[in-house]
Fold:
Amino acid sequence: MRSFLVSLLALALVSCTEARNVVQILKARPDLSTLVTAVGVAGLEQTLEGPGPFTVFAPTNEAFSALPAGVLANLLKPNNKAALVKLLTYHVVAAAAFVKDLRNGEQITTVEKDNVTVTLERRLFKTIVKINNATVTKADINASNGVIHIIDTVLMPPSTGAQDIVKTIQSNPDLSTLATAVGVAGLEQTLEGPGPFTVFAPTNEAFSALPAGVLANLLKPTNKAALIDVLTYHVLGNEVPSQKLLDGEMLRTLEQKYVTVRIAGKAILINTALVTTADVQASNGVIHIIDAVLLPPSGPSPPPPPATNHLWFRGFTCEKAGTGQRCTCGEVDAAARMPPSLFDPSNKAALERYINITNMFYTYGLTIAPLSKLEVGRCRDAGYTDGPNVISGISWTGIGSNGGGTDVLMGPICEEQCHCSYPSYPVYNPALPGCPDAPDDPANGKFCSLCGPKYNAPIDIDLFNGPCRPKDIAHCFNGTKTTGLNV
Structure:
């Protein structure tokens, strides 16, 4: 009987501990395949196959996909192995820590040497476990050399997540030439400051593509002023994430000259340099990595003239046509009817407000088929290139069949900020005078010229046919009438 009990106990112990090691278990799970790839690239397989014991906080494929665009691809490059090892070892503890061993508020030192913080949320039927900001979705997966906890977010080491722009650049081997140039120019202290900044960061390859001798010449002490001019032409005095960049926008740099943003589909260009990795976050701003060095134009750069400003809005209609659909995109460049001062970088918040309220409220009365919610961008960037046909003289402000509906959104704004009644909307407050063509007051955030006749003249809409996108088909019209937006 005693030997039977001993055998039974031994069997129970074997059943509680898998014979596979940490790496073998990770490889057996399809939802951890990205982590497995990263472990292989980092050369950590042999370590995690060792005796341990280890605790591994294992991010899922979805967790890696949630990283900013380009971050994972950049980490997996051979010359970024040190950064990848640092990230992965922040997910490993050199001890076996099961959930029962964890304490709320406990800080555990990782193999990377920084700590992770444990949070336990006791609920009626279960305990929610968090490691930093990541939730444990599956706990206590036993391995022969430790334990695995699957998490829903990639953990970022404090020494990485909290780095300023200079340290972030210095930690990226692809940016070592830029790091050297920043040091030679004496700009480290500036870029370590509170900011916030936006840095368009050329890669080593971008610097190598300069004509022979240019880089070496710039790095000479006697050419420090020229080097500063080049480098500060890559820096904005505010933080601009990629989703806030507008096609055709001109951004004033610390060097006081302008760079131009171009957006084509998902591609972002700064002048002629392609953004290869966007939104690398730093504690005092954001970095967009680019594939070419930006060279400031010679001579003083005046503010961009009004003719260079563009703000394209586009909208879509869809009609059933036989067994298929017919989709049309209409676009208008609103910049021609907006005050140039609204496009100055210092007035970016006001411009964004104008965009947001236009997207929220604008309707187009000529369409029988429903008009989609407006988008910022050009029809060609959505694949609509068959055209244009032009509808001219469309009222921007009127109510009724030709009405744009902007009176609904601008009426209250003009009354509140400019104390006048918006064109075609006197019913809002008939006691107020009609809005004249008034000067703007950017310092106080008032752009009353938007309320006057000049900037509310009829508009032209360019129409293009093209392949229907899934979201265009989603609001497709089933009626038989012809929409006013069809070419």
Q: What stands out?
A: The first strand starts at residue 54 and ends at 59.
